[in-house]
Amino acid sequence: MKTVKMLATIALLLTLSLGTWSCGGAENAQDSAATEIKHGEGKEHNSAYVCPMHCEGSGSDAAGECPTCGMAYVALEDHVENDHSH
């Protein structure tokens, strides 16, 4: 009976330790993502106007259409502001 209680206590401590450790890592990742406006690399992610699909080679300083898929560009500020994350 003592062995069962000891194993249960060890299992509980391990579970709590792992839970605390894993939640701390996720919290730090969210904090760093929230402070950074850029959400990818390249002009398809960081131009003033971006394709919602982030097609390679898309992105512009002016409104227009994506040359790859034909979708209308959206302002980067609006795109990121709507809680768009990768």
Q: How many strand units?
A: 2
Instruction: Please state how the strands of the largest beta sheet are arranged side by side.
Output: 1-2
What structural class do helix, strand and pairing data support? mainly alpha
Q: What's the number of helices?
A: 3
Radius of gyration: 22 Å
**Residues in helix, %:** 40-55%
* N-to-C span: 50 Å
Description:
It contains three helices and two strands. By secondary structure, the chain is mainly alpha-helical. The protein has a two-stranded antiparallel sheet with strand order 1-2. It is rod-shaped and about 75 Å long. The N and C termini lie far apart (50 Å). About 9% of the residues have low confidence.
List keywords for this structure.
single chain; 86 residues; mainly alpha; two-stranded antiparallel sheet; 2 strands; 51% helix
